[in-house]
């Protein structure tokens, strides 16, 4: 690790992998753990420009500039969309769904190490950090993670990464959480990853909104197939989540538009795990 600016935590630096020779920047205290920065920026050129303006060290600036220059094909830029969803999640706090997650988290025995996939602005990670040990959140939205960092909780940190790339390698977590992202990643591949990552508990939810996404996934899971796959992975469904649920999750898009989802929630434990 090369550290170029540090306050209470590393603000700017470079992480270098001795195994794969990959180089990963830390910008505004967010480690960007993506394997191919050029591919990442190919649909986020505005974000690349934003980062160039906000980095100070010449090495980090050179890495971002080189990655932008090496983009092979520019796609539709998602930077503004990711900014907008960050605002939507900020306005949509304190939902029935959030209260349900809080209730579930409080019932679990204390977990030393927690990982949340698709953590967005860190609302749920913050809830888990109040009841458990160290919490790591990962997301692909830089602006959502900037918002998440504002929680400033000592036992919680965030990383920009693709859930399907396995940024934590063979590391195991007591609790792995994924809320409402099954229509954003290939579900079967994702389930295999989180099944390996979890050594005690797995908390999943989704509204199965595949048709509402422009670039949806190839394999679609519903309530029954999700539960069947989780059981095949060696987990048992606990705390009454064996049957489908319909939990209200309201998102305030703007003053004239609200989205109301009915979310299904699954809490699973490795077969030998007991919950009082």
Automatic annotation (TrEMBL):
<dbReference type="Pfam" id="PF13649">
    <property type="entry name" value="Methyltransf_25"/>
</dbReference>
<keyword id="KW-0489">Methyltransferase</keyword>
<dbReference type="GO" id="GO:0008168">
    <property type="term" value="F:methyltransferase activity"/>
</dbReference>
<feature type="domain" description="Methyltransferase">
    <location>
        <begin position="114"/>
        <end position="187"/>
    </location>
</feature>
<keyword id="KW-0808">Transferase</keyword>
<protein>
    <submittedName>
        <fullName>Methyltransferase type 11</fullName>
    </submittedName>
</protein>
<dbReference type="InterPro" id="IPR041698">
    <property type="entry name" value="Methyltransf_25"/>
</dbReference>
<dbReference type="InterPro" id="IPR029063">
    <property type="entry name" value="SAM-dependent_MTases_sf"/>
</dbReference>
<dbReference type="GO" id="GO:0032259">
    <property type="term" value="P:methylation"/>
</dbReference>
């Amino acid at each position: 690790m090369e550290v170029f600016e540090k306050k209470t935590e590393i603000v700017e630096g470079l992480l270098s992998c001795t195994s794969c020779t990959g180089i990963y920047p830390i910008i505004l205290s967010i480690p960007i753990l993506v394997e191919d920065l050029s591919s990442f920026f190919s649909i986020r050129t505005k974000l690349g420009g934003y980062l160039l303006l906000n980095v100070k060290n010449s090495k980090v600036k050179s890495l971002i500039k080189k990655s932008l220059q090496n983009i092979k094909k520019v796609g539709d830029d998602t930077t503004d969309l990711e900014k907008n969803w960050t605002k939507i999640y900020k306005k949509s706090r304190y939902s029935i769904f959030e209260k349900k997650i809080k209730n579930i988290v409080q019932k679990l025995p204390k977990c030393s190490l927690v990982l949340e996939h698709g953590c967005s602005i860190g609302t749920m990670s913050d809830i888990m950090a109040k009841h458990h040990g160290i919490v790591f959140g990962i997301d692909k939205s830089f602006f959502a993670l900037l918002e998440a960092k504002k929680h400033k909780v000592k036992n919680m940190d965030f990383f920009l990464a693709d859930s399907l790339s396995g940024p934590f390698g063979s590391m195991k977590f007591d609790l792995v959480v994924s809320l409402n992202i099954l229509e954003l990643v290939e579900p079967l591949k994702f389930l295999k990853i989180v099944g390996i990552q979890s050594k005690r508990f797995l908390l999943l939810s989704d509204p199965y909104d595949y048709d509402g996404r422009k670039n949806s996934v190839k394999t679609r899971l519903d309530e029954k197939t999700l539960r069947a796959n989780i059981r095949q992975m060696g987990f048992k469904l606990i705390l009454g989540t064996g049957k489908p649920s319909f939990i209200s999750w309201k998102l305030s898009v703007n003053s004239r538009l609200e989205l109301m989802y009915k979310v299904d929630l699954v809490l699973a434990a490795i077969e030998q795990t007991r919950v009082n």
